[in-house]
Amino acid sequence: MARELNRLSAAFVKSAPVGKHADGGGLWLHKRPDGGAQWFLRVTVHGRRREMGLGSLPHVSLKEARLHADMWRAVAREGKDPIKVRQRQRREAERDLHILQDVARDCFESRKAELKGDGKAGRWFSPLELHVLPKLGKVPIAEIDQHDIRNTLAPIWHAKAATAKKAYERLKVCFRHAAALDLNVDLQAPEKAKALLGAQRHKVQHTPFMPWEDVPAFYASLNEGTVTHFALRLLILTVGTRSRPVRYIRMEQIEGDLWTVPADLMKGRQNAEQDFRVPLSEQAQAVIADALPYERDGFLFPNVRKGVISDATMARLMERRGLEARPHGFRSSFRTWCSEATDAPWEVAEACLAHNTGNRVERSYKRTDFLDRRRELMQRWADYVSSAI
């Protein structure tokens, strides 16, 4: 039987003439006229003859061809089609070779509709792009374990805790997405990595804010008539909108003393579902009128070259003046003023800042945004901050 199965020799294989030469047990060597040679195996499964290639010379030697033949003959004896089994194995191998960066991008694309502005700002993807993909992007996601994740996030786990947490959360979503794609991933790997990383030793740093008593003097100092000065004044006067809506303000959003901020410019998933109405004080309307000559491409606060001024433009102005406070901090200045210098109801002050109040059930029954009461409070704030002019 051994002789019947091993008819060929290595020397013969090397110099075999053109034609098909049997090694026994269905294993054949096909020597082509062009000098190439191919191994193939013939087996019978369920009464049907199947012929499958096993590779070519010299990449597959006689010894290797016999080993492959033994393996696939065993599969055939089990009543399985060796060609279909191999095809399935290859599909599974290709499936498991999906690298993380491809899975992450596919995951991002499928979630764009859930993100503000369809994720164009890149905030969802950037933690992965900056801190995970440079190290793990080209690794098949099926091969990534908790140690890989731990080693990747460890350098920023404490030093950049907020960013690390976002990267970790995005990675968890990517692993769930991979599982939905039927990839062979360890869904527990991120959780196990978090256990290895331990609790974050990071103290939350709130944005430094200017004491409300100092705001009028700072507001008065913004008197150079530049785009940056106008933008900062409007930001202070309309504290509920944050920097992004102010920088992207367009005249078409304003009607009378009402500025309607598009939902996609508002922060937060809840706010992103509806526009936000901002009552404009007399001072805010005056700032808009003064800034109108600078309008370009529909934007009231354009950048020197293209687009709109950046968030850093206003922050750098305050930094150059040696101030610790930053533009976002005027929200805290306003809220503290409301608490210490006015009798404004808590829910009205919170509504000025576009904060959601109450639980989900309470919000579902609330049908007011306190526009008229906010209009009165914002005018009081404007009168106060402009009192030093």
UniProtKB/TrEMBL annotation:
Biological processes, Gene Ontology terms: DNA integration; DNA recombination
The keyword tRNA processing appears for this protein: no
Residue ranges occupied by any Tyr recombinase domain in the UniProt entry: 205-378
Phylogenetic classification of the source organism: Bacteria, Pseudomonadati, Pseudomonadota, Alphaproteobacteria, Rhodobacterales
Source organism: Shimia abyssi
UniProt record similarity statement: Belongs to the 'phage' integrase family.
Assigned keywords, A-Z: DNA integration, DNA recombination, DNA-binding
TM ranges: none
Protein name from the UniProt record: Integrase
Alphabetical list of Pfam families matching this protein: Arm-DNA-bind_3 (PF13356), Phage_int_M (PF22022), Phage_integrase (PF00589)
Coiled-coil regions listed: none
A GO molecular function held by the record: DNA binding
